[in-house]
Amino acid sequence: MPALKRSRRARLVVITLVLLLVGGLVAGGVWTVGTVRDSFPQTTGSVKLEGLSGTVEVKRDANGIPQVYAGSTEDLFMAQGYVHAQDRFWEMDVRRHTTSGRLSEMFGEGQVRTDAFLRTLGWHDVAKEEYETKLSEETRNHLKAYSAGVNAYLEDHGGSGLSLEYAFLGFVNKGYEPEPWTPVDSVAWLKAMAWDLRGNLRQEVDRSLMSTRLDEEQIEDLYPAYPYDRHRPIVEGGGVGEDDTFSPDGAPATGDGDAQAPDGGATPDSSGDGTQDPAGSEGGQGSAGESTPDGADADGVRTQLGGIADSLDALPSLLGPNGSGIGSNSWVVSGEYTTTGRPLLANDPHLAPQLPSVWYQMGLHCTKVSEECPYDVSGFTFSGMPGVVIGHNQDISWGMTNLGADVTDLYLEKIEDGTYLYDGEQVPYETRTEVIKVAGGEDREITVRSTRHGPIISDRDTELSRVGESAPITGAAPDRGDGYAVSLSWTALEPSATMDALFALNRAADFEDFRAAARDFAVPSQNLIYADTQGNIGYQAPGRIPTRGKGDGRYPAPGWDPDYEWTGFVPQEALPYEYNPERGYVVTANQAVIDRERYPYLLTDDWSYGARSQRINDLIQSKIKEGGKISMDDMQTMQSDNSSEIAKLLVPYLLKIDVSDPYVREAQQLLEGWDYTQSADSAPAAYFNGVWRNLLRLAFGDKLPKELRVEGECLRVRPADDSGPLEDLDGTPRTVPECGERDPDTAQPDGGDRWFEVVRRLLEDPENDWWTARADGLESPAAKGRDDVLARALKDARWELTTKLGKNIDTWSWGRLHRLMLENQTLGTEGPGLVQRLLNRGPWELPGGKDAVNATGWNAAGGYDVVWVPSMRMVVNLEDFDKSRWINLTGASGHAYHPNYTDQTDLWAEGELLPWAYSEEAVAEATEDTMALTP
Asked: Which of 278, 347, 467, 863 has the fewest CB atoms below 10 angstroms from its CB?
């Protein structure tokens, strides 16, 4: 265990350093070794827990990963709650204050806006109703036992004894004490998961914002159709029969029946008075359809929808940037094609990097598996929630990736005198009052308004209050007056039994059990893959996915028109699945689930475009052709594949550009002979990604509205209102400065595989209007035509990387640009600089890239820093679970300076995995510390 030894040697050094730093943090503050070590958990000896019926053993390995052994389910989940609180209570406390819209109670005035938005959504209220009315008695008992374990820990620990962060918090929120944990706190975390994995709300807003600059055809250029001919969907056959049931071997039924038509209706008309056309001229205009009935101007659209975008950015993204980036990889290979003769299953969810990791590794074992105590499960858990989210039990293994179903719609609402217009009548809206308590400040009272479609989210911000002034609409519409309000329909705002589904997955013994569990997995909608010890593999698409009358969910819908209502939900029997497909493997990586031509229901049109999934398909095919077999090492190697699919497409064009400047030519030569691998030490990868970033900016980014561009990056554009002359007296077009407003992590163009497809289509059309770039001083005149824009991107990237990495290209490396910082939640991002330095770790120079299989994501509009990652990796061996492997982004501990704080990160960065002990014998051999919890 060399890495562990290095960690322990470093421990004395860092603790000494933290004592020196913290000693001067606050005048008069007394900090000791005990302040830092107070929260380190007890891992040996025994602890009495009132409420246990028998002794529970907690065995931890060298990485602090616990395996819990109990004689009853109540004891098992009570112990899980206790252990989660030992290692991660700060994280748990922040999460529950987020999901309940109570961050202001911890952190004060700065969180009031976020709390108001979250209270408007009402996550905690829905979770409470879910707990009381939807969940089984068995699940409620598990949640109660888990809460009792958390609270048993809280009874004996407080302040810095819970976590070092509480010592810091005490200086700004003196007297804060965590309240007891409740089952609803656990259930509410599912709403946070659902929010961050909600589907295409961001794309719905972005398309509407684009309509202020671009016409409908231009917007469609930027959202091309999914390339089914090149990138395989998850399910390659089957169809829904006349009985509305999906069959993997069946053919699609003829006729529409009662199903929703795949095209889902027309794209809403929209209006726009653009300030710049795609050709880059400041005087151009764009229109996305006919003008809205009352002739509202495009600046209104920009302000209103920009307000929504700002609020989406302001909300805590607990799992990662929503949109094309957030995703995952998973695949399962039949034993027919593995060296073990049994299936191998891999999974790596792509989420936001944070410290500690969102995941917590754990095993939950009934000492004697029976009907009364049916759990023998190991895998990745969420602190704050009982059970295992992804992993395996004694019979099956499962993994998840985001399906990305469209489960949210924005509705424009005509509000007047306490009513909203619907189907020609004024209907009273509903209201409720919420009180936001503020640490160090006065309470705030807000009124939440709701229509039949959901909460009115435009009430929560001065910009959001104008969100409906001129959003794109279809058909006749009431007078806008001061603008429409905007409400949100979202499946997660209705109670469901998803928590039941998680426990059912933990107990499942076969594919039938697995599918039965998936039926209750309402939100977030996930791709579920499956393997069992009998050699079977499979896939199921679960989720509560709406069907629509008119409209396809791509733009805000007119709330007054009943034709745009949700008409129901895709029947569970009609959702696609596979069981032992003939090809011998299943790959899910956020690509299309099934070809639209074969399926009668619209799941979404905003899939990831399949670059990662097809690369995984190709890697598997290359291994099994001519009788080859796939090993555990092969699965692990695939997870670390760094190949750039866009480089394979674009580099041949870049090498054909005749570059006369020797300084730029020197950099261009880096691409000659490059194998398209984005290793951390690769100079060609650094330069190519620089070219890609600059190409996207030149061809697309500079033509997008300010709400999509990076905050603070400014251009000169034609005034949006056209109230003045179009040019000065000397003929120069009149322009004004316009600065971007979007957070760098979510700005466009982000460079993901949607943009791969956009550029792929345009490369074959060298005179397309998108191939233009504005002048940038005397050294960079305006460019027109594909080759001119490519040449400009080569030049601009050379100068950008010279600034960042130096003149000598021999010293360039991708990792120097592409760095990961791990930031502690809240205090590590918004606390004083010294506190951030104490709690945060990094940087790590990483390989991989956006929509590589090793998806260390970066946003090409915002820069090169890593903004999402494979948050964990696992490879499960169904022939022998003890030969399985796993790794977490950080470590088991959430306590700064604990040896297990980031002890897995170096291995993770190198693509390494840890042994995953499962059997009692293997766990015993790996155990370093044993603690007994006694009645």
From this structure: 863
Q: Which residues contact 719 (CB under 8 A, 6 or more apart)?
A: 275, 734, 735, 736
Q: What is the rounded average pLDDT of the residues 452-458?
A: 95
User: Which stretch of DSSP H or E encloses residue 146?
Assistant: helix 137-156
Query: What is the C-alpha to C-alpha distance for residues 531 and 579, in angstroms, rounded to an integer?
Result: 10
Which tokens hold the place of 552?
Answer: 């396809």
Q: What is the structure's pLDDT at 158?
A: 92
Label residue 818 by pLDDT band (50, 70, 90). very high
Question: Which residues lie below 8 Å from residue 435, measured CB to CB, with a gap of 6+?
Answer: 443, 444, 445
Q: Which two tokens stand for residue 275?
A: 């300030």
What are 502's two structure tokens? Answer: 């998680």
Does the CA dihedral 225-228-231-237 come out positive or negative? positive
| CA 785 – CA 775 distance, rounded (Å) | 14
Can you give the pLDDT at residue 780? 83
| Confidence label for 295 from pLDDT (cuts 50, 70 and 90) | very low
**HSE, side-chain direction, 13 A CA sphere, residue 325:** 30
CB 884 within 8 A of CB 874: yes
Q: Copy the structure tokens of residue 351.
A: 């989420």
* Mean pLDDT of the 562-574 span: 97
User: Which residues have CB under 8 Å from 659's CB, separation 6+?
Assistant: 665, 668, 791, 794, 795
Q: Going by C-beta distance under 8 Å and a sequence separation of 6 or more, which residues neighbour residue 723?
A: none
Per-residue burial over 14-43, b = 16 or more CB atoms within 10 Å of its CB, e = otherwise: beeebeeebeeeeeeeebeeebbebbbbeb
pLDDT in tens, 373-411: 999 999 999 999 999 999 999 999 999 999 999 999 999
- Residue whose C-alpha is closest to residue 541's, from 524, 558, 566: 524
Which residues, in sequence order, are bridge partners of residue 434? Answer: 446
Question: What average pLDDT does this structure show over 615-637?
Answer: 97
- Band (pLDDT 50/70/90 cuts) for residue 33 is low
Other Cβ atoms less than 10 A from the Cβ of 129: the count is 15
C-alpha 716/C-alpha 498 separation (Å) is 50
Gap between the terminal Cα atoms of the chain: 35
Q: Percentage of the chain surpassing pLDDT 90?
A: 75
Say how far apart CA 302 and CA 295 lie, in whole Å: 15
Q: Judge contact between 649 and 780, C-beta under 8 A.
A: no
Tell me if 162 sits within 8 A of 39, measured CB to CB.
Answer: yes
Pairing mode, if any, of strands 736-739 and 537-540? unpaired
pLDDT tens digits for range 281-293: 333 333 333 333 3
Lowest mean pLDDT among 376-390, 684-698, 707-721, 738-752: 707-721
Q: DSSP assignment, residue 358?
A: S
The pLDDT of residue 475 is 66
How far is residue 333's CA from residue 310's CA, in Å, rounded to a whole number? 42
Q: Residue 512: name the closest of 504, 500, 522 by CA.
A: 504
Contact present, 808 and 674 (Cβ < 8 Å): no
Cβ burial, residue 174 (10 Å; 0-12/13-18/19+): exposed
Nearest to 546 by CA among 608, 605, 487, 603: 603
Tally of helices (H runs) and strands (E runs) in the chain: 26, 37
Helix (H) or strand (E) segment spanning residue 912 = none
> pLDDT value at position 923?
98
Instruction: Report the distance separating Cα 123 and Cα 351, nearest Å.
Output: 21
Q: CA 457, CA 901: separation in Å to the nearest integer? A: 38
Alpha-carbon distance values, 522 to 308, 488, 506, 578, 718 (Å) = 26, 18, 17, 19, 47
- Across the chain, what does the average pLDDT equal? 88
Q: Is residue 917 within 8 Å of residue 61, measured between CB atoms? A: yes
